[in-house]
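Late entry, evening session. Most of the bench is empty. Finally got around to the prediction I had been postponing all week. Sequence below, unchanged from the version circulated by S.P.
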Amino acid sequence: MNPIFSVCGHELTSLTGIRSSFYQILPPDMDGLDRNSQERVLLGLEGDLINTESNFKLYWLDGKLYLNAFGEINLGHGEIIPQEDPITTFIGSEDSSINFYENYLTHGSQFIRLLSVKDFPLTLEKLSCNEWPDFVLNFKKIDKLAAKNKINLKRKLHFSALYKSLRNMDSENAFNQSESLLDDVTTDQKALFSVEMYIIARARSKNNLDKVTSKVSHQFKGLGASLFVEERGLSYFYQSLFPGVVPSYKRACDIPSDCLSYLIPYHRDFVMDEGFELSSRNGVPVYFDLFNTEALNYNVLVTGSSGQGKSMMANKLLWQELGRGTKAMVLDLGNSFVKNAKFHDGAILSQNFNPYQFKNPRYLKEFILATMDEKLPKKEEGRLFEEIKTILENERIMNFHDFLRELEKSFSGIRYYFNEIEEYFTDVTYPLNNLTYCDFTLFPEAMKAPLIIYLIEYFKHLEGEKVFIFDECWHLLLKNADYIAECFRTFRKHKASAVAISQNLDDFSESQLGRVIIQNTYYKFLFRQSLSTSEFIDSHSKSILDSVQSIKGAYSEFLLLTENIRKPIRFYPTPLEYQVMTSAREDNEQFEEYLKHGGMLLPFAEAIKNFTQVKNPLWSLE
């Protein structure tokens, strides 16, 4: 069954010779807009509708918006792109035959019922129709003179009802509404449209189709609307919904333009065109690409209260990047990333390392400063830098011990800063690993700041795209604030991303280093936390953040904030991802118990896969 004469790309010709075009509409993502901005978008959409002069068929199918246009339409917000194979887009596949029964039809393995809207909802909230099932909305603007006559007739009917002995409030309200609408139509602020809508209920069996139909009918009844199940004219009405077929308007109602704009699901869950898959609150897939070329830098700031899922999401970033060949350095405080590192055969950083492995004078200066108690005056920092450059030119200096002894000649007593930590130094030159994991808790407090400086220099020497995860260590680097800030600013040039993790954005912004890092992280993943409005988060972003809520074992929810994006997003881990990324004590204790009873005999990745299978019998790795 195909009531179309021809289809060429996105262009259609009906059996009566009428031409039309088929498009996909890409509306803006309204999640990140405040109420006033959302109203402006919908007012703009209403204005676009008022300026049309022909028939239009709008399709809401599987969460996507399509338009069959028999004339011209321009949208001030969003995009219109040609959509090829319009018939397949509507019915799914042209291979299977369509069979009609008493009040439903079958197409392949699908059972379909058509429900026309008899009475439209009394009131509608913005974007509420995004939650409706698939539907087709046909509309055409009524000529201005004819529209005024229709409104005027309705106004007169309600005017006569005002003189009944018992006052009729509904008639009085309807009269006032008609008066207002007539003025707006006369001044071209609104228009009247002939509109018909058909809800498409789908299921895999007749029994389930009946349940879906009942659920949809109940949903619309709650909105003050009523639906009519098409029976006798089912074949006719279903064919009339095909793209390219001019609407019949046999089920039409007169709807003003502002109401029509609210009947259009003018919102699209969107973050990026490609990347790994996350989810919107509506369950629609959205995509995130850390190394998106439009980003000003690739740095990420992850903040949130304990238990809200920030380490889970940072683990997901690491998981995805390792999967696509990105190299990584992980500085872990609390074993949040150890299973991920072991799963991907990462190298565990030895407690001994060679600070003289890299002969960069700026790095060595920062390494020295990180070890000292006090911050040197600028003049002394300059003298230190010059002395280090001179020492590096001496080829007889082969290790850090000799380097320090030579530096002692110009900076008397400097070696004493290293007495406590010198046992961690070695002369061995370690190879650069694609994934290096450092358990920060294994090192003494005096060693932590210089170790970070060493790891940053190690990280810089990795080739290609790379990610450095810093887990809550910023208070240790205040003496190196300028150096860390410079690294964050210049990482993009080296295809590098720094992922900084902290408990609270407000606390982080209190230090100069924290403020610089906030300013130089393009992506901000904000999990639930107590924040006040500031230069880094406005009142609207705060209101969205206050609404995010992660559910343990189900999903982690956060606000993704960039210069162009303000979107609540969810990460639903697979059973394997959850087991690798969870830091919950009970989950890790169960896995440790599994390892004790034979799991440790297996390679780590194999062991955790087997354990996941035991916990989730219905789960399949494929």
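Two things to note before I forget:
The two ends are 38 Å apart (CA to CA).
The chain has five domains: 23-81+88-141+191-262, 143-189, 270-350+430-575, 351-429, 584-622.
Will write this up properly tomorrow.
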